């Protein structure tokens, strides 16, 4: 079952290009159908954005760097311990307490430089092979990803070609069906307009015939029964339709066969 159910069908292989006016109207309609939060809220099927979590010390230092604040004194790595030691101003008259921190700093620098030289020697001896092996591994990973990408691109191209071929195969049928639909809609509208015109004519003829039949009944007389007002209820004949005539104070009712009721 797909995660996204909203789809907009199109036939790009056979549909004619849209004019800018129609394209703008369609874009406005699509944008109006989206919720107001669509521009700022991710789709529910998408995972939430990754938010890294740093230790408090890292977070504090990142905040300091973001605000361009200076490093507090006494924090971070003290690079002065790697600086070359210098003798006191009065080297001959200096006491042992004065020389002790200088000698400790010199010993630290000597150990650091000795280890660095040893590491450089190891790198010169074995680093080239390790670097080549690392590059070979990276090339193997890159080649595997490129092959996967090539397979996916081939499948995408194949699907596009099949879709285009299927659309072009039914292009003629689609045109015939569209033209038939247009003609059918036009004929339906014409039939509805003609039926409305016929209905209006029939009603006009019935009204005219009813008015003529009612006039003959009033002129030639007819069977009268009862009394409504001064003239009573008149039974008469007419061509068609029901007629109510109150001209002389009476009521004339005619059915579709012309028989009075």
In short:
The protein is mostly helical and 261 residues long. The chain contains four helices and three strands. The chain is 57% helix and 4% strand.
Question: How does this structure look, described?
Answer:
This protein has four helices and three strands. It has helices spanning 20-33, 56-66, 96-169, 171-220; strands at 223-225, 232-235, 250-253. Strands 1-2-3 form a three-stranded mixed sheet, with no helix packed on it. The longest helix has 74 residues, at 96-169. It is elongated. The two termini are 69 Å apart.
Keywords:
disordered C terminus, mainly alpha, three-stranded mixed β-sheet, 261 residues, 3 strands, 57% helix, single chain
User: How many alpha or pi helices?
Assistant: 4
- Radius of gyration based on Cα positions: 50 Å
Whole-Å distance between the termini? 69 Å
- Oligomer, anyone? single chain
Write the element-wise H/E pattern from the N-terminal end onward.
HHHHEEE
Structural topology:
Layout: H1 20-33, H2 56-66, H3 96-169, H4 171-220, E1 223-225, E2 232-235, E3 250-253
Parallel strand pairs: 2-3
Antiparallel strand pairs: 1-2
């Amino acid at each position: 079952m797909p995660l996204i159910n909203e789809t907009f069908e199109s036939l790009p292989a056979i549909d004619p290009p849209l004019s800018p006016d129609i394209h703008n109207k369609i874009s406005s309609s699509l944008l109006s159908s989206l919720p107001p939060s669509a521009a700022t809220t991710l789709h529910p099927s998408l995972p939430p954005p990754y938010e890294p979590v740093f230790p408090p010390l890292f977070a504090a230092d990142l905040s300091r760097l973001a605000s361009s604040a200076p490093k507090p004194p006494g924090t971070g790595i003290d690079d002065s311990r790697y600086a070359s030691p210098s003798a006191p101003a009065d080297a001959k008259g200096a006491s042992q307490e004065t020389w002790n921190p200088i000698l400790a700093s010199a010993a630290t620098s000597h150990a650091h430089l000795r280890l660095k030289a040893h590491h450089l020697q190891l790198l010169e001896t074995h680093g080239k092979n390790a670097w080549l092996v690392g590059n070979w591994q990276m090339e193997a990973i890159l080649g595997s990803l490129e092959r996967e990408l090539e397979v996916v691109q081939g499948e995408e191209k194949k699907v596009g070609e099949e879709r285009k071929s299927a659309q072009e195969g039914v292009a003629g049928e689609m045109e015939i069906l569209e033209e038939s639909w247009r003609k059918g809609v036009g004929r339906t509208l014409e039939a509805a307009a003609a039926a409305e015109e016929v209905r209006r004519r029939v009603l006009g003829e019935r009204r005219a015939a009813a008015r003529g039949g009612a006039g003959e009944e009033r002129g030639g007389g007819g069977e009268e029964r009862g009394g409504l007002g001064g003239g009573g209820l008149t039974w008469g004949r007419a061509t068609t339709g029901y007629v109510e005539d109150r001209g002389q104070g009476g009521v004339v009712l005619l059915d579709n066969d012309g028989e009075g009721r």
